[in-house]
Amino acid sequence: MSGQEFTVAILIGGDSSRMGADKATLLVDGVAMAERVSKAAHDAGASEVLLVGGTQKRASGITGQWKKDLYAGEGPLGGVITALKSASHDSVVVLSCDMPYITSAVIASLVPPLSEAQATVGRTDRLNWMCSAWSKSECLQSLQSVWKRNERAIHRAAVLLDVVEVPVPAVAVRNINTPEDLAEDTDPTNI
User: Fold this and answer.
1) How many domains does the chain have?
2) Which residues of 42-55 are buried (b: 16+ CB within 10 A; e: fewer)?
3) pTM of the complete model
4) Is 130 among the domain residues?
């Protein structure tokens, strides 16, 4: 869709403590959440889909290539760095596995602005750093540098970068974090 080759990295390594079960493989409308994100990535035209973190066993039922998180247990910034190091392409979209309603259009919209910025981030009423895109050549060194200074928050690491905000529908980045979120959930894209 974007006309440019890009990688999508789906972070599947969280401990899902609020859910009490593995969110990556949790079924929403009969499909694992991470598989739903992977399908949207493929539909968006990603030429590579990486599954970052967790275990290879967890990733085995999800379409994509598993990559061990180089900074397991240290939060999503480590997952972003791992994704950038592992990606075959300069443009790398990073998504969390718990956004089952992400669309191919949202994913594709994050890539073109990278021609004029170092990173993009999905914007609803707030910035959604787990729906972002990064130029590997422009961002990796900066992110590694702040990591070495013990920064673990993506939003604070990104202040050093030229970031473009991309408007996205709130439903597309809605997280399923708790059993209550799942119980009250109906696919809002079908309403």
Assistant:
1) 1
2) bebbbebbbbbbbe
3) 0.91
4) yes
